[in-house]
Amino acid sequence: MSKKEELLRRRQALVPQGVGVFNPSTVLEAKGAILTDADGRQMIDFAGGIGVLNAGHCPESVVKAICEQAQKLIHACFHVATYEPYLDLCEKLVKLFPHGEQTKVMLTNTGAESVENAIKIARQATGRQAVIAFSGAFHGRTMMAMTLTSKTAYKLGCGPFAPEVYRLPYPNFYKFNDGLTHEDFVRRELTRFRHALVSVVDANNVAAVIIELVQGEGGFVAAPKEYIAGLRQICDENGIMLIFDEVQSGFCRTGKWSAAEHYGVTPDLSTWAKSMGSGMPIGAVMGKAHVMDAAKPGTIGGTYLGNPVSCAAAIATIDFMAENNLNEKAVHIGNIVMERFKAWKNKFEGVGDVRGLGAMCAIEFVKNNDPKQPDADKVAKLVTACADRGLLILSAGTYKNVIRILSPLVISDADLIKGLDILESELAKM
Ligand SMILES: Cc1ncc(COP(=O)(O)O)c(C=O)c1O
């Protein structure tokens, strides 16, 4: 029996099936964009631990920072004793992601925790209850985050969900353009949003709108720029907090520190995690100071928030990203991937759409060239076939019919091309 078979057998005996298996691969150790699996076989990583490893596996400076901090202080609890790594990290984040004149930061452990707290802050800041989220959204698996999440397959039997959450259609042009021009599509979607503030939920009861500028689990769908500008205007007119969930899109993935930079729109609040700490559990809620300060003492927080070792990892990760120009690398990777994807669209049956912002690239598979007929089977087969050939890939999309590229941004051109070659040769067999 291979070590892989042994591990998967032990997993099946010990771990409940609810903790899903998104890829049948195993891992012993990893460096950069290469994993070594439990049997010592090398694999190219196009999954990045679900978008966590923009700076690559185990960057040396991050490992060093973790070790040094662990020798000094592993935990104190920021509610109990103030420590410098927390503040150093906040200062860095505020410089990278200014939210207007003064920005404040609450550190967390995960993306879902960031989302939970952003909603609590928005509610306290507005004195209102309702939250608007979008179809195709993914915001995490804690109860409010899961309520905000769209995909019903992730929520089966988990209700009742949090009250006062309303869902509107995400402006997915590929799927729902209905023959409209881009401009007319955006106009229709914004009109629909305005109408919902009367017909679905009263604008005066809406605390926040939460949106992913580029949907992650939803299949790397980017909202049109003009839509986000319109949303900002609607929120301003109605005293609604606009929250950007940048958990998957942040920290160089799109070729900029934030997806928001592409849009030129400032949110009231934003949520972060994933690649921020190179795999150490850390996230953040950021926002305009007066909004962040609306949360009463004791209403937000937690034992582990902004753990010193995680803070040290995040500081070193951000420095590594800046020193190694990961934003430029993301653009370079995106160009290589998109060139191949576009060629496949002409070469292979069933490629419905190819899209990308920086290195946040995806290819969507459909039947009969119809955006509304997703082909999840093909994607499931590709994930398994690529794993057998030494390439780790992940699906995405409400219907699991999208393959997304989340490789570390430190991947060499040779490994990136080798990975794309594997994907292409498996696609050619389908
Ligand atoms: C946009 C977005 N928000 C929130 C989350 C939840 O993050 P976590 O899994 O760290 O709780 C995710 C995770 O995939 C995400 O992509």
Task: Explain how this protein is built.
The protein has 430 residues and is α/β, with parallel strands linked by helices. Helices cover 41% and strands 16% of the residues. Strands 4-10-9-8-7-5-6 form a seven-stranded mixed β-sheet, with helices on both faces. It has a four-stranded mixed β-sheet with strand order 1-2-3-13. Helix 6 links the parallel strand 5 and strand 6. Helix 3 packs antiparallel against helix 12, helix 8 packs parallel to helix 9 and helix 13 packs parallel to helix 15. It starts with a helix and ends with a helix. The mean pLDDT is 97. Pyridoxal-5'-phosphate binds next to helix 5.
What keyword list fits this structure?
four-stranded mixed beta sheet, alpha/beta, 15 strands, 15 helices, seven-stranded mixed beta sheet, binds pyridoxal-5'-phosphate, 430 residues
Q: Layout of helices and strands, plus pairs?
A:
Layout: H1 3-14, E1 29-31, E2 34-36, E3 42-45, H2 48-51, H3 60-72, H4 84-96, E4 103-108, H5 111-126, E5 130-134, H6 143-148, E6 165-168, H7 173-176, H8 182-199, E7 206-211, H9 225-238, E8 241-245, H10 260-263, E9 269-272, E10 283-288, H11 289-292, H12 308-323, H13 326-347, E11 351-357, E12 360-365, H14 376-388, E13 391-392, E14 394-396, E15 402-405, H15 413-429
Parallel strand pairs: 3-13, 5-6, 5-7, 7-8, 8-9
Antiparallel strand pairs: 1-2, 2-3, 4-10, 9-10, 11-12, 12-15, 14-15
Helix pairs in contact: 3-12, 4-12, 8-9, 13-15
The protein binds pyridoxal-5'-phosphate.
Pyridoxal-5'-phosphate is lined by residues 50, 110-112, 115, 138-140, 212, 216-217, 245, 247-248, 273.
